[in-house]
Structures are given as structure tokens and as C-alpha cells.
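Problem 12. The chain below contains 755 residues. Write out its predicted structure in C-alpha cell notation.
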Amino acid sequence: MYEKNIAIHIRGLVQGVGFRPFIYRLAQQMNISGEVENNTNGVTIHAKLSADIYDLFIKRIREEHPSVSSIHSIEIREEESDKEYVGFSIASSHTASNKVTQVSPDIAICPKCLADRKRQPHRIFFPFINCTECGPRFTIIKDLPYDRKRTTMAPFTMCPHCRNEYLTVAGRRFHAQPMACNDCGPSYAATYKKERYGTYSQILEMTTRLIREGEVIAVRGLGGYHLVCDALHEGAVRSLRELKQRDNKPFAVMFRSMEDIKQYALVNKEEECLLVSWRRPIVLLRQLKPLSSGVNPQMQTIGCMLPYMAIHYDWFDALDTPVLVMTSANISDMPIVISPEEAERCFGRNVSLLLHHNREIYNRADDSVVQVFGRQPSIIRRSRGYAPESLFAGIKTEGILAFGAETVNTFALGKDDMIIPSQYIGDLKNWETHNFYQESMDRFMRLFRFRPRQVVCDMHPDYHSSIEAARFAYSKGIPVIKVQHHHAHAAACMAEYGLDEPVIAVVFDGTGLGDDGAIWGGEFLLCDKISYKRLAHLEYVSLPGGDKASLNAWRMAIAYLLKYNLPYPVSFAERVGALNIDTIQTMIGKNINSPSTSSAGRLFDAVSSLLNICDDSTYQGEAAILLEQQALTEKTSESYFYPFSISEGTLPLEGILRGILTDLSTEMAVERIAYRFHFTMAKLITEEAKFLLAKNGVGKVVISGGCFQNHLLTRMLQRCFHKEKIPLYIPSLIPCNDGGISVGQVAVAAATVNK
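Solution.
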């Protein structure tokens, strides 16, 4: 049968995941001659194929590709060359153009490598074992195409044994770039009582002994250092809180196995799939049995993950405890520590042991955090295991650089038709985080061969990201597009689902500058990716003290009660004190640092304080989080809701607050009032969205904003919208919090530039 020389170009997550070896083996099985190569835009196969073999070859590529890989597109063209191929080979990688492929996230150690550590002589207990199906990727890569010489494994020269495996087609380590063994790979070194220890057996004995004795240790991992202790040891967890300078914010924990997780938390099928996946995120679960009281104080939920490095498995093999606290090694809101020098400086005097390794972490990455709404995963923090996977936008995004928001920051690049979000960065008000932000942006631009042509940022002029965007644009002589905060939230969700038609967007969060100069945050928008119209919003209330109101929930409680001339509950007045109440009332009355806000986040804070759940937050969103946690303890699932009205324009909240005060006066259980409030907000959103859909002739609703991290609220919304048969789109791959803003900014800018 007549054969043609063709080129098959595959885009998607196809580098660093064993894709070329897979193609090689498949071609060998099918007796196809040709070659496969990595290039900056993906993987290209050159082969001589007949029509019947071609169809089967493409079908098998789509169906049998490595589980970690993903295929976005397959493009085929006939080649003019009549080149003759002898057998099939893997060609050297090359830089074809400034186009780029996706970069693989880091992948948890696979079961096959765990088994190899017990049977391969040169890898017995080797802690950095990996293959084409697992191991470090994003955290070690410096440049594309993905080859060893462009990673932090470059200093480690393969021994003859590893080199042979690297070149053996039938093996799992064929062209596995970070591959090594005990003879040629990275190693651990521990600092204990100022002494250095280097043998792995010594290190395992010391670390497990110290954990068993209730000590805290610092350990270098994939994307940074962790602080580790026994999650069942009260003294150890208390010491860790002092070390981290963290009062109440919950710690993430790592369990030995899924069976152990199920002893302490409820796990549904979707949550279990996430926990055991190669991404190994932290998954928020409903707690069944308590750990140490200091792990997650006042919480009904707990962040759980499973081991993803060899040393994690080795610890659990030697320890009796089934669970360890595994929290990012940083102080307060600073970035996770990645270098031995940083670790020594920050923690050398405060932990029992520092455990380093000599494989450089080039790209910093915290553990990712995910929760599941019903059956839908939703990312809260997008980092290790997810970054820097791209989102295909369906529109040209080339040259767009988005600077993101102020807190929970990420930035994003537009490349070809992709949006490439960064890993989680953090709060840019922190100097160290700002440096991390600039360093990561520079590295992304170099890695993805990015040439900025258009800068996009938040409309708020005082955000550090907006200031940095203006400085950058001026230095490059390129234009700036400013995108309203809540429009960016909506556009991010629309981009994820490929929605190009107008939608009703419900965006509930803490803060975002509005067109009228007020602080928005309880918004109902009619929007597409280019423009938006504000249709309705929660009624304005004063924000006494500006940003301080997000820390002192009692300020917002006073503001709401004063607005509607409602009485102060006796217990509230006693706790807060007459002086504070008078001061806030004076500030509002004289409009002293008391801008107007429609923020849903501040409403949740106010209710939390009125119910004596949380008056002062020690971390972002604590008052609202604890309000939800209290509601989760309510045993019934009644359908009572407080009175509200729907309309275009302003949505008054007096009926809701009056109802809460009435229930308080009858000494109704706080958890029931909290539950009623959540259900009321779900009903309000549903009814208002239903009204606006009909009035504006659109058919879909997207939700976004930090308030929808609230599991109870969002599950209620899913049920309400399902009952009304209204399509509801909830961010899944992109965080609904400000970590998704940069994606929305690119989407808006791309639509604007290309309109």
C-alpha cells in the first residue's frame, strides 16, 4: 500500500512524562519507521505511514498515552521530503521556534519506583528514585526543551549503570531526565546539634527518633522545606505553632495510607481519587476523629495528603504514628524556604534537626490545596502537582502578561493560545514574597520564551501588583490594560469552561475596587470576556478602618447594626465594649476612613462576630471560616431562611440581620443560626440569579470569588441551582479566590485585543 512521509505534531502535557518513550515503543510494536523529538512546542513524530496504519497509530496514541500526560491537539501534515527511515529512533531535542510546550508539574513517586528501592542493588533505599512516570519536573526545570542539561540535575553525571538504563528502550527509565542512583545521584545531609550526618540510614534513624520524641524537624522536599512533627503529640504541635508564629490557622497533615485517613475523616470517591492521584494535593475533608487539639482548632474539616516522596514512606515504615503534621517551612506570610542557607537562617536555632539535600530547587512550589463540591474538584491553592499546567484559551493570547491581585497572588502569561498561570505566590505586601514574585516572573518569561507586548493588571492603583505592572510597562514601553477585579474573577471561570456568550456572574469576595470608587464584593454582573454591567449588589455599608475591618469582625457587626438601626446583643456589647462601639459609630458618622462596601466577605465576618464565633481574625478569612465550621455542626438540614428581597440594583440585608438577632434573643443554638444564614445566602443568590437570567435573556451562571471556597454555601448553591435546572459553573482548575485573577486578566485582555 502507498506510504507517505508525514509529520504528526502533538501539543499538550507531553514532555517530562514519558511520551517519547511511549511513542518509540508503540512504533516498534507497529513496525513503523521514523523518529520522535521534543521541541519547544510539543512533540513531533516524523514517519512513513500507509493510510490504514496511520489511523490505527493516531487512535492508539489518543487511547494509550501515559496517564500523567494529556493531549490538547494532534496536527498532521504531509512532508515534502522523501527521507528514508531505518527503524524508529528518538531524535535530539531542539528549539524550533519561540513556541512552547506545556511543562510537567512534579509527579509523586510511583509504586514501581517504590518497589525498585527494595530490589535494584544500586537503588536500595535510594531516596531520589524516579522514572518517566514520576519524580521532580517543574521544581527542577530551568529551560526548554526538557532535557537533563536544562535542569538542576545537570551537576549529577550518570554512572554507567544509569546511562545504560537511560538508553534502554524497553525500560521505564528510557530518557528519564532526573534519573540517578546511590552511586551518582543527590543525597541527604542532616544538621543535628551542629554535627553533620550524611548516611541515609543514620538520617532515617535520627529523624524518626526525634519525631517519636515530640520534636519538630525541618526537611527539604520537592518544592521547598517542610516543618514536620507527630500530629498526635500535643507538645510537638504546640512547639510548631510557636515556631511558625501561627495562632489558629490549621496545619495540613500527611497520613501513612488511605486506610488511616478513613479512620480520621470522611472520604468520598472523588476525594479519594484526588488523594491517590499523581498530583498528591492536600484535600480538605470532613473530620471524624480529632488529632492533637492544636492541629486544626475549632475546625470540622482537616487538610489531608498522602506520601509523595520516598522519605515520607520510609518515615511511616519506622513510626507508630499514622499521621504527621507537614506544613510549609516559612514564618508568618513569607514564602516557603527552598535553600539550605535560608533554612539554617530561619530555623537553625528553633528545630531539632535540619535535613537538606543537594538537588537545587529552582522553582519554589508549596503543596496544592483542593476540595470537592459534590463530585467536582475545586482548587484553592494551585502549586505543586498542578503548576505550571496551561489553560487553552481558544483565542490568541500571545504577549499578554497579567500581574494578578494583591493577596493570594499569581501572575499569568499568554503564549500562543494558552494561558500559563504561575504557582501560588502569596501576599505581595510582604517584601520577601514580592521578591519571589519578581524572580518567578523573570523565570517564567525565560522558560516560556515570552516576549511581553501587553501588560494587564487590577484596576486598584495601590495594589503592589498594579504598581509593579505600571513600572514594568513603562520600562518596556508597552501598553497597560486595567481590569476590574470582579470582572476578572468571572472571566477566569468563563475561560476555564470556554464560555464566550454573556452570562450572569455572581462574584462574592472580600474586596475589590469598583467603578464608583467603593469597595465591591457582593456582585451580580452581566458579562462576557470584554465587558460587564453591574446589575445588582449587596447593599452598601461602611467599612470602618478600611483594611482593619477584615481583621476585626466586630467592626463590621457595628457597621451593619448601625446602618439598619438595630440593637446590639447584650453579649456582643459586653465583649466589644462601649468605647469601641462609640469609636466606630463616630468614625462612620463623620466618614473617617470608612469607605462604602458591598462585600459579602465582610457580611460573613459581621455575622460571625454577632454570634460570638470570632471577633478578631488571626489569619485571612478566619471569622467567615469559623462561621461555616459552626454551621457544619448543625445536625438538621432545615430549609428555613431569613427574609430577603430580590431586584435590580441594591439588595438590602436588614431582614437577614433582623432575623439573626431575633433568633439570638430566643437563645437558639448558634450552629442553627449559622446554618440558617448560609442557607439564606444560597437562596438569595439563586433567586436573584434566576430573576436576572430571565430579565436579561441569558442562560448560564458562573460563580467566583473567595466566598465560594465556603464548602457549605457552595454545596447549597449546587443543590438550589440543580433544583431550578439552571446551569451553574464553579471554578475547578483555577482557584475561585484571588489566585485566579491573573487568568481572568489574560482572558479579558485577549478578548479586548482580538475583538
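Discussion. The mean pLDDT is 94. Students who got a different answer should revisit the alignment rule from Section 12.3.
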